[in-house]
């Protein structure tokens, strides 16, 4: 309803997962598990989980650069955290309201619906804590929180669509540049992760209008050269600044 009201693309995690799976040859089910399951579950190791999340994030950003987008799924506020111009919205509803919808959607009884909601909440809490290191319901993670216990869906759409016209969420040249920089950063990460020599690196990447700066520690000059060479080949990268060091600054 919101996407229709705004004239935006309506993007679900299933669409993103399917596109990522097709583009990178990862099973669709595995991609979906990455956005909701902990590493180790369903045979998904930590490196595979990190890789899939990078693919997932890149697809969302790629879609958002091409056209204004409403992305709806749990975890979106974390995947796209820290990017100006995005509005992160949480839709709340009381337990009884959610149980009612679960009964209707899944054709189950009250007890089963209550157990289902409890299990979902616990799973999401654990996922956000262990994967992102945050509490799921931390208010500062969101720009807007709405409660459907007393607010209709139509009313929620009215509020969000009105808020989207604020300068903080407008499609300004400044916000578009930030978005394009984040997309380029996401592409760099995808290429590093696809490369067997660089897939486990933990470095910082900053992108400003096509200028890419690497900082952090790597294991060798060979690794440093591989990272720089990989980034330099990506379309949109105009300049690479190498501030990488050899060693581990966190060692005592």
**What is the count of distinct domains?**
2
Which term fits the overall shape?
globular
- Helix-strand sequence: HEHHHEHEHHEHHEEHE
- Spans with pLDDT under 50 lasting ≥5 residues? none
Strand order of the largest sheet: 5-6-7
CATH topology tier name of the largest domain? Rossmann fold
Radius of gyration: 20 Å
Number of helical stretches of at least 4 residues: 10
Helix/strand/pairing category: alpha/beta
Provide the CATH top-level class of the largest domain: Alpha Beta
Overall residue-averaged pLDDT value? 91
Instruction: Estimate the strand proportion.
Output: 5-15%
Indicate the CATH architecture of the largest domain.
3-Layer(aba) Sandwich
The major sheet is characterized as:
3 strands, mixed
Q: What's the helical proportion of residues?
A: 40-55%
Considering the protein shown, what is the CATH homologous superfamily of the largest domain? P-loop containing nucleotide triphosphate hydrolases
DSSP E strands, number: 7
Short description:
With 252 residues, this protein is an alpha/beta fold. The chain has helices spanning 2-6, 13-24, 28-34, 46-66, 76-79, 95-106, 110-132, 153-163, 173-194, 221-232, and strands at 9-12, 69-72, 89-92, 144-147, 204-208, 211-218, 239-246.
């Amino acid at each position: 309803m919101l996407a229709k009201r705004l004239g935006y693309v309506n993007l679900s995690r299933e669409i993103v997962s399917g596109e990522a799976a097709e583009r990178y040859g990862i099973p669709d089910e595995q991609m979906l598990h990455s956005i909701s399951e902990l590493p180790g579950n369903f045979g998904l190791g930590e490196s595979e989980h990190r890789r899939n999340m990078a693919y997932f994030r890149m697809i969302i950003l790629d879609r958002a650069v091409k056209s204004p987008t409403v992305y709806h799924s749990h975890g979106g506020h974390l995947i796209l955290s820290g990017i100006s111009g995005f509005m992160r919205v949480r839709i709340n509803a009381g337990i009884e309201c959610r149980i009612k919808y679960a009964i209707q959607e899944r054709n189950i009884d009250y007890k089963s619906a209550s157990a289902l909601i409890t299990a979902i909440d616990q799973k999401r809490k654990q996922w956000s804590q262990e994967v992102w290191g945050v509490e799921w319901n931390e208010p500062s993670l969101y720009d807007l929180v709405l409660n459907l216990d007393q607010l209709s869906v139509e009313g929620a759409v009215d509020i969000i669509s009105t808020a989207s016209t604020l300068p903080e969420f407008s499609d300004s040249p400044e916000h578009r540049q930030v978005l394009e920089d984040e997309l380029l950063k996401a592409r760099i990460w995808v290429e590093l992760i696809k490369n067997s020599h660089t897939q486990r690196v933990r470095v910082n990447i900053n992108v400003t209008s096509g200028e890419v700066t690497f900082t952090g520690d790597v294991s060798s000059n060979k690794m440093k050269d591989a990272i720089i060479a990989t980034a330099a080949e990506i379309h949109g990268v105009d300049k690479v600044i190498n501030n990488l060091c050899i060693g581990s600054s966190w060692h005592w």
